[in-house]
Queue: 2 jobs
Job 1
Amino acid sequence: MKTKVQAGGVSQSPVIDIQDLSLVFKTADGPVNALHEISLTVQRGDFVSFIGPSGCGKTTLLRVIADLEQPTGGRIQVNGMSPHEARLARAYGYVFQAAALYPWRTIERNVALPLEIAGIGRDEQRRRVDQFLELVELQDFKKKFPWQLSGGMQQRASIARALCVRPELLLMDEPFGALDEIVRDHLNEQLLKLWLKTNKTIVFVTHSIPEAVFLSKRIVVMSPRPGRVIDIIDTNFPTQRTLDIRETPEFIEIAHRVREGLRSGHD
Amino acid sequence: MPEKSPFFRQFRTAREFVTIVHDNVHVMNQITINTSYTPLVSWQRLMAGSAGPVTVMVIILIVIWYIAVIFMNTPWQIDKFKRAHQQWTTWELVQGTMQQRRPVIPAPHQVLVELYKTVVQKNVTSRRSLVYHSAVTLSSTLLGFLTGGLLGIFLAVGIVHVKSLDKSLMPWIIASQTIPILAIAPMVIVVLGAIGLKGLIPKSIISMYLCFFPVAISMVKGLRSPDPLQLDLMRTFSASKSQVFFKLRWQSALPYLFTSLKVSVAISLVGAIVAELPTGAQAGLGSRLLAGSYYGQTVQIWAALVAASVLAAGLVSLIGVVERVVFKRMGAH
């Protein structure tokens, strides 16, 4: 496997390469199989969604990629490195379910936080903060404090914060899960545009079928007890798509297949 | 969303935590300075704000005080009339209870007169000036408060960051406060005096000993208050321990810090006053209290008590002002 990747050249190597990955949590009630023998590759420029009911390990898998959890078995590489090295190299940006903006920092200083930590100079910080706040259309709110912004705006600010270190890889853990339907639809469209504009690799965790089908190039359907992958579905929608495609037969067919997968995993 | 943020959740509970201390000090403060009352204002309008209820409460307290003065000082007044073989009316008796030189309880106006004499009429460098004695107490209060506060912060930082310190230091910090330091303060002062520590330093050591505890306990809690999500975020940025401290833990701990500082500064003053008792009545509010009780000068004692409460109120509200300024800059709403 490794020789094949090297033969294909660096540009061909997957951003995320997971082989037989397992994670067992030791709890007071005995071991819990959070992830069971998961194999998965994510190619450069992919938009991959993990979907599944709660407890299926989709968030845990994302946290393993981000080096926030340690696997107990199998092999994982991020950008050809271990997740730990990838984290230290700041190879990814992570967006949590909650915006987790620091309430004592203005929006621009929140976005600048990872840059400050990376030791990037003030001028460059300012340039990048402006650039990414413009990308998420928050340039007029940079002097505001988080509580002055709506939930959707806060989450956009947290996306700008994840992007401003210019990672190749964006990991998103149910970023719109706490938002209402209308805001969520709007942000889905914006995220799609952002993906096309920036050419990032995005791994996206969700429990919403329409969200997963609309956004993804590939959908990884997962199932709980033990957490495992039960189906991987490729979608082939045009890159310049709007929410209208949710009414097309192709969309409904894929959504149906996802739902079937989720259902079979439950039995 | 902002309501859910843990920072402000702490902020609110922290505010609740100090209410008791703060309110008490506030009332003491009001006794001495708030005597303006206009009966022409309608009752409802009066009770609408906070000034109205506070004023009414103060008036009630002053009335109770005067009644207590009459009852407590009556026996001695009757004695006095009898010894002089003098007839007295009830009104003369009541008047007499409020004019004694060494009353059991001095009347409020007597305390005010004493305060006027010792604050306004005396040169501030005079040993008879209450301002001079307050300044002596204030200096050791502040020194003890600063050193104790810093010690508390350093201990908390160590405990939060070094696991072995958490296990080893915390029990000792708790145990340190089981010693009734106020009761043995005179002994400590004498011992410290014997090894050559005199004046400001031993007094502020007592204050420091009292001060570091609430600061250390609160700061341990405060520095640990960031939730897992905020810490995970720092991890995804691969932040160093010191970056996590200066960019997350410290800010999260500030509400806890200010709460504990308010408690600390008040007990620092108590420590300083108690530490002044055995110094042979040289200087400070404590020595004024001691001298007052030695010579039965109750008016002097009460004047010193009022000065101490004004000092405490001033210090606590000063920290409150700093707290408000800091939180305003940190975007609190």
Job 2
Amino acid sequence: MSGYRIIALLLVAAGLTLVPWYALQSSFYEFTWLAKFGGKDQAPALLQIKNFSKPWLILLPVLLLAAAGLYAKPVNAATAAEGAVRSWARMVVFIGAAGALYVLAQGFAIGPRGYNFGFLSAMMPEITGGQFGLGAGAMLVTFGFLMICADGIASMGYFRGDRFIACALLMVTSLVVMFVFFPVVRVLYEGFVDADRNLSFGALWTRFAQPKMWNLTLSCLWGGSGCGVAWNTLWLALLTAAGTTFLGLMLALIVTRSNFRGKKVLRLLTVLPIITPPFVVGLALILLFGRAGAVNDFLYWAFDIPPTRWIYGLPGVLLAQLFAFTPVAFLVLIGVVEGVSPQLEEASQSLHASRWQTFRYVTLPLMAPGLANAFLVGFIESIADFGNPVLLGGSFAVMSTEIYFAIVGAQLDQGKAAVYSIILLSFALFAFWLQQRATAKKSFVTVSGKGDTGLPSPLPDGVRRTAIIVGVPWLALTVVLYGMSIVGAFVKTWGRDYTFTLEHFVKGFAIEHGVNGWHFTGAAWHSLGNTVQFALAAAPLTAIVGILSAYLIARTTFKGQRVFEFLTLLSFAIPGTVIGVAYIFAFNVPPIEITGTGLIIVLCFVFRNLPVGVRGGIAALSQLDKSLDEASTTLGAKGVTTFRRVLLPLLKPAVIGALIYGFVRSMTTVSAIIFLVSGDTELATTYILGRVGNGDYGVAIAYSAVLILIMVVAIIFVQWLVGTRKLGRRTAIAPSTGPVAVAG
Amino acid sequence: MTQATKKGTLEFINVVKDYGTGEPAVKGVSFRIEDGDLVTLLGPSGCGKTTTLRMVAGLELPTKGQIMLGGKDVTAQSASQRNVSLVFQSYALFPHMSVMDNVGYGPTVQGMAKAQVAAKVNDTLKLIGLNGYEDRLPSELSGGQQQRVAIARALVLEPAVLLFDEPLSNLDTKLRRHVREEIRELQQRLAITCVYVTHDREEAMAVSDHIIVMDKGHIAEAGSPNQLFFEPRTAFVADFLSEANVLTGEVTSVTDGKSNVRLGDATFAINAPFDVGPAKIALRPDVFDVVSDDRGQPALHVKVKKSAFVGKGVELVVDSSAGELFVFLPRAKATLEAGSEMRLAFSALDARVIK
């Protein structure tokens, strides 16, 4: 019997006998369950069957024995009759699938108070008591059975008999279905549930067709009151997308096509959206333009203009989003502008086109798909954004904040949150679909790798002037904003008392020497510790699942590959607030009952950041010639060997990229986890949101500064730790080739 | 002429490869390659030669048909199970591994002990003349050296069949002839079965025992380089291998097993009986001589349309009574004036009646 099969059987066996079957009240890793091993809550499945009347679990050990029996008598392909191997393999598939599905099915069917569904109690034998959420044992058993199932699939001849590929595919698909697809479907379901928990289409319709949502007035244009939330969201998103695309293009043109001096510094801008915590831009805008902001102060002092609250509403949110997401568009568009082959522009010029004509009729059309992509990314970013609207929205409501208030507000209205989520999700998925189409037409952009010769032609004067006139002040303002957010951390009370102080840092991060040694007495330590811990846990998982998925997408072929790719990238399009709501609905009740734990936060991080890992991996893999895999295969290596010995070492930069992205994005996520945190698992971003809510801007800004510092250190540290080995010509796979992240 | 089936005997039986994108890439191909032969798959791009090679390697599985290696059916075997090695067009050397690790990769992943691997790698590197380069990275080698490492890596497993996918296309012209000779010499020394893919007819003729010419997923013709060059049976091979002019003539009568042929204003006899009626005649561009009187040779009266001096001779496009002709005159030293008329004689032995 091969090692793989032994491991699979052992996993199932251990899951049934050694670890608690059900979820524990305390953390698994505290190992307090060892002390009460045989107890009702801590017992493994076998003891649950024997002592605690859970007879329905008996099928699992039976299936294990069946699998072991099959493995003990494998069919010898050389001597067996035709079809014998196949039918043996089919049995293995069946047992594996049955085992894994049964774990889930019994979990859904039998809840804490017995059968969950009326028809089951009618059909099935009576049971006493019920069960709570699944635990470590159930997880091991599921994985073991999945491995067995994958083995069977490979033995049937699929994936060219490669067990590794079958297993990886099955695992990733199961995880994505469980933690992306299922929650989303759960939200849809919740939208149809009426007050008495019955399914009804009417319930969906009444929630859907509210004037509050769809009221369309002229005032929508300037964010006036009386405008429907859906229109607000869409209008804001369109403005933001147009604005960021325009600004991003101007900046990209300055960097790639002008001799502007500060263009090296400009490239640093691309790092900003990655390491900026969600409230920094909004807070800085308040410090600058708010009622007590520097600009208003000055205007009042110099011209006697009374301060207004214009920043709270559409203008403020729009401004904040422009600042927050222009670097993202910039990042996308640098690649697009650089992708335009200089030869084509030279051809145009040699045909006596003027600079402007070349730009208008050659360069711009070539960039059109890229511009569309940047626009749609901006759109998705905007509708998913939660931090800026919640901070600056005032009475200007958008979908993401409405979902938030539907859950945490005075009237806990799950149905409303669900329907809002559905609508927001449809917007996002539609934009995502358009974006996929825009980027699929790659034929325009000419990155051949064959070293296009020729110099990019200079910009027409008008375009160059516009770029400089728009770009430079914008940059200056960005610098001022970030500077503001640093200064703000060191003054007593912005707007009233500008004396220098460290009290905000002391409040958050004090370390005192007490009776029993050093104590972390600062109020922020707890949330910071949590954040770092969860982000550290999530990063490697994101990298593993992401790179594995990328490998499956880019390097293997199987039916339904497009669907698989869509599933792994799906969470990119799901706004954070929607994911948060979905996770609550999906994981608040057995069989997977993990709300309030750290696990749900880690899982949320992993699957929200998964598309980043996947795309980074695909981008990196597409730079590695496929003949490398084939060479390895023809030399007798199996899928797993090729992956480990050839691809993984060459993918190191992509792995590092995924690690850093995973870590940093987890640190700055707010919208997705805002519903998932509990007192124990409070995170940095939710703590900051709380401070902001109390008007305690000083601490919030100081905390943000600390976060930025940690992230920068982490990036530098990882780069230094892993290092980059010389790979001759094939090195250039920068992490920045990865996709652009949706912040919030 | 089928020989006994040995370790390196490779056989394709009605193999079809359909990617499901319109036309199949390979449409029912059958051939047999004898042990120890070097056989070239030759054809224009898109003719299915690379797909055929990849099916030998196991990198593609046939949609239909059978592949036999050493008398055993290997159709369903994956690439990692087949006793076949491939030298890639791009070499596909692992850029993060030294020459040693690259060549030792195959034995290592198949579980050979370290010391044995090292010994084997050393033997192979010696064979290929690369000892002393063990610790270099591929990026530190010249193109020719990289190529040799790729060959060593494929050879180290002592495969039954060694495959070459356009191995010379990444080398500069001067080096090509040299490497081509090396490959042929090595193949004969080891008496190893080789399948070689190229679109360069000169390269194919220089290295091969046999050539299989492919066209649009079919085998157009197979045979020795000599046969295919001098005695093509199809218009495609005549055109592809020697750029022959394929003209329409007529077999007027058959006497004593000889066919009397009329081609434009030329008449001649061919030493084989053909059906009386219209026939396609192939004439290579290099068979013509400019003559003032025919002296019994068949000849065509022509008028020059275009003419170009290419160094080793003069290329002409001429109008004749049999149609337009492409002619190469190796001994001419200057271009000929357009519009000038002359007589071009050729030997009846060089005229081929083809399908």
